[in-house]
Structures are given as C-alpha cells and as structure tokens.
Specification:
This protein has about 400 residues and is α/β, with parallel strands linked by helices. It contains 16 helices and 16 strands. The strands form three sheets. It has an eight-stranded mixed β-barrel with strand order 8-9-11-12-13-14-15-16. The chain has a five-stranded mixed β-sheet with strand order 2-3-1-6-7. A two-stranded antiparallel ribbon has the order 4-5. The protein binds ligand C2E and magnesium ion (2 copies).
Length: about 400
C-alpha cells in the first residue's frame, strides 16, 4: 500500500484574497482533479482544511505511484478558473510505501505526513518520498510543535529579565523580558530552539500574549519605581487581535502605567505587516505603550517607514555593536544610526554590549542606553529584584 499526503500551498492566500466561497469551490475542484489521476482501486479522502490523502491499494507499486504523485502535482498546479477569478495554488506531496509488513496504515499516514512537511520545508510544489533519515529532523519539529502547544497550560514557559542600563551613569533603567521554555527532559531551551517553530504555526501569538501578561504581572513593582519593561512581539502575533486584548487586560490588572511598557518588533515585521497587523499596532499605541524597533539595521531598513511610524526606541543590532571597537565601518554605522535616531526624536539602545571598549565608544557617540553581558545576563525575576533593588536604593542620591 502507498499513501500520498497532499497539502495545497497558497490556499490560505486564496481564501484571504478571493474569499471563502472561492476557497470552498477550489477545494471541490481540487478533489475532482485528484480523482482523475487515480487508478482503479485507489481512493482519495479530504482530511480537513486543504489536506487530502490518497490511498493506493495496489501493493507497493513503486513504478506506478510516483507517476500518480506527478500527475496530481501538475493537475493541482494548473490555475483554477472560478467565476471571474483564476485561483492559483500548488501541491506539496508526501509519499510513504509499505516497505515491510510491520508498518501499519497509521504508520504510513504519519510517514506520508512527515514527507509532506519535508516537501513544504524544501520549497513547496514538490513531492518527497519518506525515508528514515528525514524522520529525525522532521520528527523533532513535530514533537516540539506538539509539546509547545501544551507548554503554556502546563506552566513550562519562563521569563528572564535582562537589565537595560543608562550609559551616562550605568543605572539599571529597565529590562527586556526574554522567554525560555523549561521543557521536561530537555532543560531550559533558549528562544531560538522554539520561537521559529512557534512562528511557523499560530502558537506564537499564545506564547507572546503569555509573556506579555507574565512580564507585566512580575514587573509592576519595578515599573512603579521607574523601570521600563520591554516585551518582544513577533510579526504573526500582531496579526491576531488577541494581543490587543492581552495588553489592555494586563495593563488593567497590574495598574502599570503604559509609558513604562515597550513593545519590541523587528523592522521586517513592521514592513511585512498587513492591514490587521498595522491596525493592531495602532490600537496598542493608542493605549499609551511605547514602540521599539528591535535589531535595527539588519532588516529592510526603510527610512520612509521610520518617518511614518510613531517609533520611540531604536535598538542597534548586536552585529554592529560587537564589531564597533575593532572595525571602523561598524563604528561609523553605529554612530550614523545614533545620529539619525536622535534627529528623529528616538531613544537609542545598543544591544549585545560585551566589552568596556564598546561601552566607552557608545557613550562618546551619545547612545542613551545599553544591554549586554557587560552589564548583566538575562536573570530570573528574583535576581532582577536584587539588581534593580540596588538601583532603587541608590536612586535618590543619584538623581
Ligand atoms: P532580541 O530581542 O534581540 O534579544 C536579545 C538577545 O541577545 C537575547 O537572546 C539576549 O540574551 C542576547 N544577548 C544579550 N546580551 C548579549 C551579549 O552581550 N552578547 C550576546 N552574544 N548576546 C546577548 P535570547 O534571550 O536568546 O533571545 C533571542 C531572540 O529571541 C530575541 O532577540 C527575540 O528576537 C526572541 N525572543 C525572546 N523572547 C521572545 C518572546 O517572548 N517573544 C518573541 N516573539 N520573541 C522572543
Ligand atoms: Mg528584543
Ligand atoms: Mg534584538
């Protein structure tokens, strides 16, 4: 037996741009087009969404089945005339064949699904045949995604707080909230190990909303003493209205005054943001929170966009900061960013400051604040309590 797992690429865009009625019609036509590719004894079922499964009963016919996958691929790749529209999608197909008698049909379905995922990752509009080597890579992604789905309810996410210091006097003026996942059996995972996977699904919005609320809850006291807390939001999170509700709810429950909260988004998120994302960003700005551009200088630094959007803070990416004391051109870029940001009325924060020589240069160039190993690693809240407590004690004499 061979199973083909067929997933339409670009179906969501059809739904979003041409409407659900066109999307529904496309699914019906796609089912019909798949059916004409089949041989006697084969059958197709729709699993849900834009996913179909084809079951070829005729043994592990390795000669015939790739032909079916090719035919299905080209059938689904041709435009679908629907009303006055021409909807275009393609198909990512995963294929698994019973190599031995021990594989159950459930195993086959899972393997075909993994192969389909592989086809998607390799660039869509293609067929991938399951083999054991792809199991490992894809399996981890799948298991991460599934386990992450439960992590929030099971209280496995943590927030660390990295101090942000004023360069003029090295006082701690706030913190950036950075998520970690305490995954049973895996230890404390950094964001790189799961944020990209969360971003590839809608999980990211739940993660970001949770971090936002947890950071507000834990930092209310620091904010009362003058600290500013920064929270990261992914591009996809901005597309969900949930984030606006999470923010207003967090502000209401904690009583934090909104100007003590900064939302960090990347340039790419600002630029790629669709109408909903921009509207949500606007609604959050209306609540009074600040907006910060993270990793500035590495994305599509659209200067016209900087001018249009109401941005309070620029965070200079650590790739420039880490070289600025050894490479003249990096130093020049940093000073140009500082000059431009200041001219536009923004606050400048340098990221990834590790050496005193970098701090000295940044101070000379007039940068406002900094963050990095030199001043403090991301800390659990109780440790940040201490670091910040020292500042709060010193504050009266310092200012
Ligand atoms: P980011 O927002 O640019 O955060 C700064 C990153 O640089 C943090 O990595 C921090 O630990 C690291 N860092 C700080 N100082 C230094 C230094 O002196 N040297 C070096 N080499 N690194 C330094 P982390 O915590 O691993 O986070 C990585 C990225 O993950 C963040 O980059 C942010 O883009 C993302 N992230 C973290 N938390 C969240 C979250 O709650 N939601 C979303 N959507 N993304 C998050
Ligand atoms: Mg950040
Ligand atoms: Mg950054």
């Amino acid at each position: 037996m061979t199973i083909l797992y067929v997933d339409l690429d670009g179906f969501k865009q059809v739904n979003d741009s041409l409407g659900y009625a066109v999307g529904d019609e496309l699914l019906v036509l796609a089912g019909q087009r798949i059916r004409v590719c089949l041989r006697q004894g084969d059958f197709v079922a729709r699993l849900g969404g834009d996913e179909f499964v084809v079951v070829c009963q005729n043994g592990s016919d390795s000669a015939g089945t790739p032909g079916i996958a090719d035919r299905i691929g080209s059938q689904l790749g041709a435009p679908f005339p629907i009303g006055e529209h021409h909807a275009v999608v393609s198909a990512s197909i995963g294929m698994a064949t019973t190599a031995d008698s021990t594989a159950t049909s459930e195993d086959l379905l899972r393997q075909a699904d993994l192969a389909m995922y592989h086809a998607k990752v390799r660039g869509k509009a293609r067929t991938a045949v399951f083999d054991e080597s792809m199991q490992l890579v894809v399996d981890t992604k799948f298991s991460v995604r599934n386990a992450l789905g439960r992590a929030i309810n099971q209280q496995e996410l943590r927030v660390l707080y990295q101090p942000v210091v004023s360069l003029a006097d090295e006082r701690v003026i706030g913190a950036e909230a950075l998520v970690r996942w305490e995954r049973p059996g895996f230890g404390l995972l950094p964001p790189d190990g799961f944020i990209p996977i969360a971003e590839a699904s809608s999980l990211i919005s739940a993660v970001d909303c949770w971090v936002l609320q947890e950071a507000c809850r834990r930092s209310a006291q620091w904010c009362e003493q003058g600290a500013t807390i920064a929270v990261n939001l992914s591009a996809r999170t901005l597309e969900h209205d949930d984030v606006v509700n999470a923010l207003s709810e967090a502000l209401r429950q904690t009583g934090i005054s909104p100007q003590h909260l900064t939302l960090e988004v990347t340039e790419t998120a600002l630029l790629s943001g669709n109408g909903t994302a921009n509207r949500n960003l606007g609604r959050m700005r209306d609540l009074g929170v600040k907006l910060s551009i993270d990793d500035f200088g590495t994305g599509y630094s659209s200067l016209s966009h900087l001018q249009r959007t109401d941005i309070d803070v620029l965070k200079i990416d650590q790739s420039f900061v880490s070289l600025m004391d050894v490479d003249a051109s990096s130093a020049t870029i940093v000073s140009a960013i500082i000059a431009m940001g200041h001219a536009l009325g923004m606050t400048l924060i340098a990221e990834g400051v590790e050496r005193p020589s970098q701090a000295t240069l940044l101070r000379e160039q007039g940068c406002d604040a900094a963050q990095g190993w030199l001043f403090g690693r991301p800390l659990v809240a109780s440790d940040f309590d201490e670091v910040f407590g020292e500042f709060a004690v010193r504050k009266p004499s310092a200012g």
